[in-house]
Design a protein that fits this description.
Elements lengths: L1 E3 L12 H4 L6 E6 L4 E7 L4 E7 L2 E9 L5 E7 L2 E9 L5 E7 L2 E8 L5 E11 L5 E12 L5 E7 L2 E9 L5 E6 L6 E6 L5 E7 L2 E9 L5 E7 L2 E2 L5
Parallel strand pairs: 1-10
Antiparallel strand pairs: 2-3, 3-4, 4-5, 5-6, 6-7, 7-8, 8-9, 9-10, 10-11, 11-12, 12-13, 13-14, 14-15, 15-16, 16-17, 17-18, 18-19
């Protein structure tokens, strides 16, 4: 489990309160065939479960509906999401993939605005709040609804390391990225043959760098929002 300082995270993910503890809750009201078989179960706090029980806890296939309108549909083991499943948050963010002991380990996040993340996850603890959440770590791909995409390394939920940002307009910037805003340094290639080497902010040239035209002539300078400063005058 990684530990990070307090701050915003790129793609935080948490299951409902009953699952955050890592321990299966105890059913308060139940119908069906406990402790083994198909049941409907109501928990303290308003959570509900329908599905298979083994030894008094969800096991196999089932649906767990949280009081806050979050919902998990899929496989359970020892009372926790474990196996293939889908976690749907109340804001319609969807986590689809493989779960282990109540947290997603690999799969896809689909956001309400159409953005998507595909990759691996790891548990991260915020040292300020002691909150544990599953966040992108390792190789991953973030696909924006506008057609742009980032492919590269993630750490504790944030792009951090080598990566490539492909703009919807055909510009490709690759190098080292430092945060969810895609600040970094590297090189960019343009559909018209231009090339850029230097600092990046928001995945575009910004800061100290050099532009090279398709004839090989270089123009070093300071860039702002993708343009060299003297070109604005």
């Amino acid at each position: 489990m990684a530990t990070v300082v307090a701050g915003s995270h790129f793609l935080p993910m948490q299951l409902g309160q009953a699952q955050e503890t890592g321990r299966p809750p105890i059913c308060d009201f139940i119908t069906g065939n406990p402790p083994n078989g198909q049941v409907k179960c109501n928990y303290e706090g308003g959570d509900n479960y329908v599905g298979n029980f083994v030894n008094g806890f969800p096991e196999g296939n089932g649906i767990y509906v949280y009081a806050n309108r979050d919902r998990y549909e899929g496989q359970f083991r020892k009372g926790l999401p474990d196996g293939q499943g889908t976690f749907i948050k109340s804001d319609d963010t969807r986590y689809v993939g493989t779960f282990k002991e109540g947290q997603i380990t690999s799969g896809t996040i689909i956001f309400p605005n159409g953005d998507r993340f595909i990759g691996q996850f790891d548990l991260v603890r915020n040292v300020s709040t002691d909150e544990v959440s599953a966040q992108p770590t390792g190789d991953g791909k973030f696909i924006y609804a506008n057609g742009s995409r980032f492919e590269g390394r993630f750490f504790a939920g944030t792009p951090f390391g080598e990566g490539k940002f492909v703009h919807a307009n055909g510009i490709i910037c690759q190098g080292q990225f430092f945060n969810e805003s895609l600040d970094g340094k590297g090189n960019c290639s343009y559909p018209n043959g231009l090339r850029y080497q230097g600092e990046l902010r928001g995945g575009i040239p910004h800061g100290v760098g050099t532009i090279t035209d398709n004839k090989g002539k270089s123009f070093p300078g300071v860039f702002r929002a993708g343009q060299r400063e003297d070109q604005k005058k």
